[in-house]
Design a protein that fits this description.
The complex is a heterodimer. Chain A is an alpha/beta fold. Chain A folds into 2 domains: 171 residues, D-Maltodextrin-Binding Protein, domain 2, CATH 3.40.190.10; 219 residues, D-Maltodextrin-Binding Protein, domain 2. Helix content of chain A is 46%, strand content 15%. Chain A is built from 18 helices and 11 strands. In chain A, helix 2 links the parallel strand 1 and strand 2. The radius of gyration of chain A is 25 Å and the shape is globular. In chain B, helix 7 packs antiparallel against helix 10 and helix 10 crosses helix 14. Classes of the chains: A alpha/beta, B mainly alpha. At the A-B interface, strand 1, helix 2, strand 2, helix 3 and helix 10 of A face helix 2 and helix 6 of B.
């Protein structure tokens, strides 16, 4: 009996010891939700380097299409489900969710060097001075143009040209009989699609989304001028079916050599100059976005960033991962592994100061200039109460922006006049703002 | 024109019509397959590139980036698991409604079908919260339950349509021989209905395999099936058609092969009741 008790005790002790040892070595698993683009996929491939440096953490990836990602992470964070430990969010969500207490503040202590992050990007991801998401890559908008076509037409494209000059260049380059269109712009409805470009245009025409009392201003003369100019420009010199084109469709057209100019996200520069993707890689020039009556808000500002939901059970591991993925060391790792043209840009000053990057990325100067010139806290000529360049960082904006985008896309397709579109959009926005209790 | 010639012409026109429809339906799949062997630049070129040097880069990219086996396993478990569960519930339900109908049987059948008319997004929030509270988010169990409930009306309807056409005399004879209701189902109805059950099961498996709304909403990494893998190749910034085509081809392949082997049962099942 005594022997049996001894054996039982020995067994129990050894089982307990093994379980303790197992739990000591059991890795913390974190789930990262991300969007599918080149830089994010590269991060996924380089994750073993993080896991090697942090053997107690294992990273699981969930890659989703942008709209599905938005829906899933919003659902997760609003319901405190804890499904994701790190989520890819944009500059629109970070301050709103930070204010609501849905996100943990990013740990910027120690050698993270938050001061190295471009000031406009840092401001855009902060609420009340606290950064709620760390930028993985940032972007603004700029003009990409075909140097050969513009030269052959006897024209020039320069930084901060007027929209009228851009229209003249588009007219000179436009030759549909050869399959070349003067200008390609976003036309597909959506607050992140046509409205990103349209808002920057409207800003430069002196428009704003809301006045100081949050009243929608879509029926103003400035909005009317901007949208009329946009519709006229694309109708005359844009490719057919522009009302269904967004970033990828325009990228495909430009890379096929069918666009004289394209005004879109700076991230496109790395695609259009890549000979593996573009038939016109060696003929692309860059210029700062055009303006009308003001430079304010003439180019957008966006950053895909990594945020940590407040409901995560693995906050420490998530912070470690976010700090690693958005660090200077990570950029160095990408540069050394995949070449300096492939590093995630638009986040850190040190990237642009690096001679290897300057040599590899022909678009570096234009991109930095565009990002630095965007100020989310002062993007309109007349005073406005909101933060954001191509959006207003309030929860109601997604619906308002998308409805307005649908109206403008409709007027581009010819189903209604610009005045009708703006009137309907303003009525809808007014209803939403009233319902939300702004006035 | 003689009668024979007329008949031949009719057969020719019918054949031509059938081939045209078949080719139109098959073309997107063929184009997806072809695109998966192109580079991204070839995939977007206008006019489309028809002659090109095929590349397997997209397939190796998919293999490198996604755990195909993991996603395929999840698809198999959820599609087959929910189909088996649906059949376990549907066979007795359809049997009782076909052979012992009550006053409200028709109403019940219509009510079951009416649940298919509700858009899935209408019940998204309650189902999501239930899954969260019961710890079922990102689990295959949640998908099996949802898929079962989703396909149950169709499965019951298909089996009911077949069972009600079975001669009742056979069951009466079995009863005379002392068969219990269980014996009637297992020893008489099921052996007679294998074709219908196979085709119903195959349809349910295909519907589960292709389902993406709940798969994308309720799973993250552990339980994500092949539809979630495909969705991960759509990109907001960058060209992706060739890689997406490769991922889609890999996702379709198992169910296409499975369907090919089961086509006899499928045709038999889909035409049951058509000829008496």
């Amino acid at each position: 009996m005594k022997r049996l008790t001894k054996n039982t005790l020995a067994c129990a002790v050894s089982v307990a010891a093994s379980m303790t040892a197992f739990s000591a070595f059991a890795a913390t698993e974190i789930t990262v939700a991300t969007v599918n683009n080149g830089h994010m996929i590269e991060m996924q491939k380089l994750t073993p380097a993080f896991e090697k440096a942090n053997p107690d953490i294992k990273v699981k990836w969930v890659t989703l299409e942008e709209s599905v990602l938005r829906q899933n992470v919003t659902q997760d964070i609003a319901n405190k489900s804890g499904l994701y430990d790190v989520m890819t969010i944009g500059m629109y969500e970070a301050p709103i969710w930070g204010q609501r207490g849905w996100l943990q503040a990013v740990d910027t202590s120690g050698n993270y060097d938050a001061q190295d992050i471009l000031p406009s990007i840092r401001d855009g991801l902060s609420y009340d001075g606290t950064m709620y998401a760390a930028p993985f890559y940032g972007e603004s908008s700029m003009v990409m143009y075909r140097k050969d076509l513009v030269k052959a037409a006897g024209m020039e494209v320069n930084d901060r040209d007027s929209w009228e000059h851009i229209r003249d260049v588009a007219a000179a380059v436009n030759d549909p009989s050869k399959g070349i269109y003067g200008i390609c712009l976003r036309g597909k409805a959506g607050w992140g699609d046509n409205m990103a470009l349209m808002t920057t245009m409207a800003n430069s025409f002196g428009a704003r989304w809301f006045d100081e009392n949050w009243k929608p201003q879509l029926e103003s003369a400035e909005w009317s001028n901007a949208v009329n100019f946009y519709v006229d420009l694309l109708t005359k010199y844009g490719p057919p079916g522009s009302s269904s084109n967004s970033f990828n469709e325009s990228l495909a057209l430009f890379n096929e050599g069918k666009c004289g100019m394209w005004i879109d996200a700076t991230i496109a520069a790395s695609f259009v100059t890549d000979p593996k993707q573009s038939k016109v890689a060696d003929q692309v020039g860059f210029a700062q976005s055009p303006i009308s009556v003001t430079e304010k808000g003439a180019n957008w500002l966006w950053a895909w960033s990594l945020g940590i939901p407040a409901a995560t059970k693995n906050a420490e591991a998530a912070q470690k991962f976010v700090r690693w993925a958005t660090s200077k060391e990570y950029i160095q790792l990408v540069g050394n592994t995949n070449g300096w043209a492939a590093v995630p840009t638009g986040t850190r000053t040190s990237t642009y100061a690096n001679p290897k990057f300057q040599e590899a990325a022909v678009f570096a100067d234009a991109e930095l200039k565009a990002i630095n010139s965007a100020n989310p806290n002062d993007s309109t000529l007349k005073p406005s109460p909101y933060v954001g360049v191509q959006f207003a960082a309030i929860p109601e904006f997604q619906a308002i922006g998308t409805t307005t985008g649908q109206m403008i896309s409709g007027s581009l397709a010819g189903s209604m006049t610009v005045e009708q579109a703006l009137k309907s959009a303003n009525t809808s926005a007014d209803r939403q703002m009233r319902r939300a209790g702004y006035y | 024109m003689t009668l024979n010639q007329q008949r031949k012409l009719k057969t020719f026109i019918t054949g031509l019509f059938a081939w045209t429809i078949a080719l139109v339906l098959f073309f997107p799949i063929f184009w997806m397959f072809v695109t998966s062997f192109k580079t991204e630049l070839q995939a977007i070129s206008i006019p489309p590139t028809l002659i090109f040097e095929p590349t397997l880069d997209n397939y190796s990219e998919v293999q490198e980036r996604s755990d195909y086996i993991h996603h395929a396993f999840n698809s198999i478990v959820t599609a087959f698991g929910s189909t088996i569960l649906a059949l376990i519930i549907a066979v007795p339900a359809a049997f009782s409604m076909a052979f012992a109908p009550g006053k409200r049987t028709k109403d019940v059948l219509l009510w079951m079908l009416s649940t298919k008319m509700l858009p899935a997004v209408g019940v998204l929030v309650p189902i999501y919260i239930l899954c969260r509270d019961y710890g079922l988010l990102d689990s295959k169990t949640a998908l099996v339950i949802i898929f079962t409930l989703m396909n149950l009306p169709i499965v019951v309807w298909m089996l009911f349509s077949y069972f009600k056409d079975l001669p009742k005399e056979i069951l009466e004879a079995a009863r005379m021989d002392g068969a219990t209701p269980w014996d009637e189902v297992v020893k008489v109805v099921l052996p007679l209905s294998m074709g219908a059950i196979s085709s119903t099961a195959l349809l349910s498996i295909v519907l589960c395999w292709n389902e993406s709304f709940w798969s994308l909403t309720l799973t993250a990494s552990d339980a994500a099936p092949l539809t979630a893998m495909i969705a991960s190749y759509s990109s907001p910034e960058g060209l992706f058609w060739a890689k997406l085509s490769a991922a889609s081809t890999l996702a379709c392949a198992p169910i296409v092969v499975f369907g090919w082997f089961c086509q006899k049962q499928l045709v038999q099942g889909l035409t049951f009741g058509a000829v008496k």
